[in-house]
TrEMBL record:
<feature type="domain" description="Extradiol ring-cleavage dioxygenase class III enzyme subunit B">
    <location>
        <begin position="8"/>
        <end position="276"/>
    </location>
</feature>
<protein>
    <recommendedName>
        <fullName>Extradiol ring-cleavage dioxygenase class III enzyme subunit B domain-containing protein</fullName>
    </recommendedName>
</protein>
<dbReference type="Pfam" id="PF02900">
    <property type="entry name" value="LigB"/>
</dbReference>
<dbReference type="InterPro" id="IPR034937">
    <property type="entry name" value="PCA_45_Dioxygenase_B"/>
</dbReference>
<dbReference type="InterPro" id="IPR004183">
    <property type="entry name" value="Xdiol_dOase_suB"/>
</dbReference>
Amino acid sequence: MARITASVYTSHVPAIGAALDLGKTQEPYWQPVFQGYEFGKQWMKDNKPDVVFLVYNDHATAFSLEMIPTFAIGTAAEFQPADEGWGPRPVPKVIGHPDLASHIAQSVIQQDFDLTIVNKMDVDHGLTVPLSLMCGQPEAWPCPVIPFAVNVVQYPVPSGRRCYNLGQAIRKAVESFDEDLNVHIWGTGGMSHQLQGPRAGLINKDFDNAFLDKLINDPEAAASIPHIDYVREAGSEGIELVMWLIARGAMADVAGGAKPKVAQRFYHVPASNTAVGHLILENS
């Protein structure tokens, strides 16, 4: 059977992608950010998965105010990098895994989660920046990727609890797939940041690090954080952290297994007026 062996958590700041693409990674402002991902890049080489299930949010690229799915799974064979207004990022196209994606859709919908099935879409920085941070700048991404888009842009957005429970359903779906696959699940977005209004530029180190503590040691508590706390403490865009709970809900200890091992924990501020967080958890 397929199995989820690890989860990866990371911010997906668009300026990080621009810094990579423009060769600015060694500039004094950016060097500490990219240094924090050196472990993750080597870890990815040493623990190469067969498939990555990547949870992210679309930034009005594949979807718009005309159509806003709460949860959308990409089931296509490939996905092109999106043009977000200044041309597509110079990164490889994303190769999908239609068989596993379709199986997950079938299983999760049968577990009473409503998914939108997307057979064609471009993927924006929410998905490509995490891949660049963990995989560098290769000619091709090292494995197939299943995009899973979550609406955290237009209210109403799903609760942390809903996302956490969805992660458990995804784990069950993966484990019921009859091909022997090593799957990693990634939760991306966040951490604290606000892009507009009087609080633009808000960063809350205390909240971010407390969230990481809960995510590792008490995911039930993390899943219980109400929306208003994210907005109040982490800024209007801090709600993206609920996507990390999908990945955490898919880990083995949620089903009564052993507590996951923390392979990497990294936190840095600022990066383009946002906080950057990165975590790798391995199932025992």
